[in-house]
TrEMBL record:
TF-B3 domain sequence ranges: 132-223
Record's protein name: 26S proteasome regulatory subunit 6B homolog
CDD domains: B3_DNA, RecA-like_PAN_like
Localisation: Cytoplasm; Nucleus
Domain of life: Eukaryota
Family of the protein in this entry: Belongs to the AAA ATPase family.
Coiled coil: 331-358
SMART domains, per the entry: AAA, B3
Main function: The 26S proteasome is involved in the ATP-dependent degradation of ubiquitinated proteins. The regulatory (or ATPase) complex confers ATP dependency and substrate specificity to the 26S complex.
Record keyword Repeat present: no
GO MF entries: ATP binding; ATP hydrolysis activity; DNA binding
Length: 691
């Protein structure tokens, strides 16, 4: 009694498992197939091959005649010639005659194993040629013999046209095939390659494009569980001992998942069988089911239904394929969008270059209104409200900066470097002169005063802080021409580490209105940026004469330059180490506002040298000259003529030139006498053209 109850319980459990696995639908199909069909009047003998063959689904793009797999079987096509077929399918156009036991349905492990072996070999190959791995399905090797290639690989390596291509196996045998560019696939010789190498479902192939029209193909059998033994027989490099040990460790770590993988493969085969047979004719479906049931290797799910997994791997595969297809579409869209943006960038750069092409109008930047607009001044004196090119760095747009304007719209298209300014010769730092205090004869008092006013505040600024007084801001050097004013200013610059900016007063007078005051501002701005600095303005009387009622525009412009100079000197911050030295020989004509304390705190006079100063100047000028022992410099020093230091230097120079003229290496007293008369003694008679 207990046996009967246990038997009934087992039957109920098996029935429930059959329903969960969908076996009931297969049973209904088998029931419909086994029904009796009415006999025809003239029955034809039916070949047994019809019951032992199965036709996998084919791609509608291929119209290749299907032949048997090495073993030709006589097929009676009379039964199938009258069957109705679809316009979009070639299922019944040609018929495959291959025994079902030769058609392999690869398991999940076999496919994954072959793919892993191919990918591992691809990583070890380290070839510079492009390659990809392709897994075989039934339509590739059993029916239509059409092999689709990855679209991205075809786009990158093949033209969009049909061409002949050569397939080369590992043994060097070549197969001529046809690459169809519109469909990105192989046809023609691919069938012979598949037949010769007995490719099955689940096998993996590594395609290496060794030449533009030649594929090197490596075959990895799925039934060998990703083992490279057969690959080694064909000359492929086997893995090293260390790599085999790593693989053994990985396999030992995966033992606990082996049973679950077996379940997935069983359910996958059974699910594929059901989805595959529902599109076949009743006869073909019955043959397929019978073969799967009778073959334990082909149908492990029917042998052990208790270990079947409820997870639908086929549905997951389709979902992943859809996700992959959607990802490919997104990738194509992003790449197309990237190409469009690159083209737009190139067009924009070309447009900017065209806008910035010469000739352009040079102007002066006044102020920024917003990020896209500003006010600029042109050389004609007019100000414009203009647009600013988006590619311009806004940090370079500072007041008084030189900018380039478009010749038609006056739009600001570029910021000119400081070297492009016409007044750069004034603003550039002059090279430090090599004149020292020893090169200046006499002028001891003047040296001491200018050291206290200029050099000491730059080198020992803390002394003035300790005492609690402000150092002098500016120094005026005045006196007759040739008394050493400019040379003493050069000596001060040489004995300090300050930047030396030398400007002549007449250079501030420019053609256009407003240029002179702007240059004054730029000179003082450059000095502040390079502090400590010394600004030496020679011949300052050219712009600093006393103001009067000007009648012409030129005089008014000179007075504007003077007012800007007064403003800059009055606005000096005492913390900024910038000193101003001015030199002139017409101190009586300078404006009183410039001479007041606070602007020019120290005024140093350079008179004509006295007897002692003459002696010192003569000694300095003749220190490097080859004089005769007969030359008595005291004779020239004691003469009562009032001569400047420049005239003394000219006397010595003229004496040397006279000795050179006479082809002598020694300067005699008569050479000095002639030089003295040439520079000091004025001619008693006027020139002929004055008479």
């Amino acid at each position: 009694m207990a046996y009967e109850e246990a038997r009934k319980l087992r039957l109920q459990e098996n029935h429930k498992r059959f329903q969960d696995l969908g076996i009931s639908q297969i049973s209904k199909t088998l029931t419909q197939i086994t029904k009796k069909t009415p006999q025809q009047r003239n029955p034809r003998p039916i070949d047994k091959a019809l019951f032992a063959t199965a036709e996998p689904r084919r791609s509608s793009r291929v119209r290749t005649v299907i032949s048997s797999y090495r073993d030709d079987v006589a097929v009676d096509t009379g039964r199938t010639s009258n069957l109705r077929r679809s316009r979009h399918s070639s299922t019944w156009a040609t018929y495959i005659s291959r025994p079902l036991h030769e058609c392999k349905f690869a398991s999940y492990e076999e496919k994954v194993g072959a793919l892993k072996a191919a990918e591992k070999f691809q990583s070890r190959l380290k070839s510079p040629h492009p390659s990809f791995v392709k897994s075989m399905v039934r339509s590739h090797v059993y029916s239509c013999f059409w092999l689709g290639l990855p679209s991205r690989f075809c786009v990158d390596n093949f033209p969009e046209e049909t061409m002949e291509i050569v397939l080369e196996d590992e043994e060097g045998e070549e197969y001529e095939a046809v690459y169809i560019g519109r469909r990105s696939g192989l046809s023609g010789g691919w069938k012979r390659f598949a037949l010769d190498h007995k490719l099955d479902d689940g096998d993996a192939l590594l395609f290496e494009l060794v030449e533009p029209k030649r594929f090197k193909i490596y075959v990895f059998k799925g039934n060998e569980n990703a083992n490279l033994t057969s690959a080694g027989k064909r000359g492929r490099a086997l893995p090293s001992e260390e790599e085999e040990e790593d693989e053994d460790v990985e396999e030992s770590g995966d033992e606990e998942h082996s049973s679950r993988a077996t379940k997935r493969s069983s359910v996958s085969n059974l699910t594929f069988l059901f989805l595959y047979t529902k599109d076949l004719s009743p006869i073909m479906a019955s043959a397929a089911v019978a073969s799967m049931v009778l073959d334990p290797k082909a149908s492990p799910a029917l042998m052990d239904l208790s270990t079947a997994d409820e997870e639908d791997l086929y549905g997951r595969l389709k979902s992943l394929e859809r996700q992959l297809e959607f990802t490919d579409i997104q990738e194509e869209y992003v790449k197309d969008e990237q190409k469009n943006l690159k083209r737009e960038l190139l067009r924009a750069q070309e447009e900017v270059k065209r806008i910035q092409s010469v000739p352009l109008v040079i102007g002066q930047f006044m102020e920024m209104v917003d990020q896209n607009n500003g006010i600029v001044g042109s050389t004609t004196g007019s100000n414009y409200y203009v647009r600013i090119l988006s590619t311009i760095n806004r940090e370079l747009l500072k007041p008084s900066a030189s900018v380039a304007l478009h010749r038609h719209s006056n739009a600001l298209v570029d910021v000119l470097p400081p070297e492009a300014d016409s007044s750069i010769s004034l603003l550039s730092q002059s090279e430090k002169p090599d004149v020292s205090y020893n090169d200046i004869g006499g002028c001891d008092i003047q040296k001491q005063e200018i050291r206290e006013a200029v050099e000491l505040p730059l080198t020992h600024h803390e002394l003035y802080k300790q005492i609690g007084i402000d150092p002098p801001r500016g120094v005026l050097l005045y006196g007759p021409p040739g008394t050493g004013k400019t040379m003493l200013a050069k000596a001060v610059a040489n004995h300090t580490t300050a930047a030396f900016i030398r400007v002549v007063g007449s250079e501030f007078v420019q053609k256009y209105l407003g240029e002179g005051p702007r240059m004054v501002r730029d000179v003082f701005r450059l000095a502040k940026e390079n502090a400590p600095a010394i600004i030496f303005i020679d011949e300052v009387d050219a712009i600093a004469t006393a103001r009067f009622d000007a009648q012409t525009g030129a005089d008014r412009e000179v007075q504007r330059i003077l007012m800007e100079l007064l403003n800059q000197m009055d606005g000096f911050d005492q913390t900024v180490n910038v000193k101003v030295i001015m030199a002139t020989n017409r101190a009586d004509t300078l404006d009183p506002a410039l001479l007041r304390p606070g602007r020019l705190d120290r005024k140093i006079e350079f008179p004509l040298p006295d007897r002692r100063q003459k002696r010192l100047v003569f000694q300095v000028c003749t220190s490097k000259m080859n004089l005769s022992d007969e030359v008595d410099l005291e004779d020239y020093v004691s003469r009562p003529d009032k001569i400047s230091a420049a005239e003394i230097a000219a006397i010595c120079q003229e004496a040397g030139m006279h000795a050179v003229r006479k082809n002598r290496y020694v300067i005699l007293p008569k050479d000095f006498e002639k030089g003295y008369r040439a520079n000091v003694k004025k001619p008693d008679t006027d020139f002929e053209f004055y008479k």
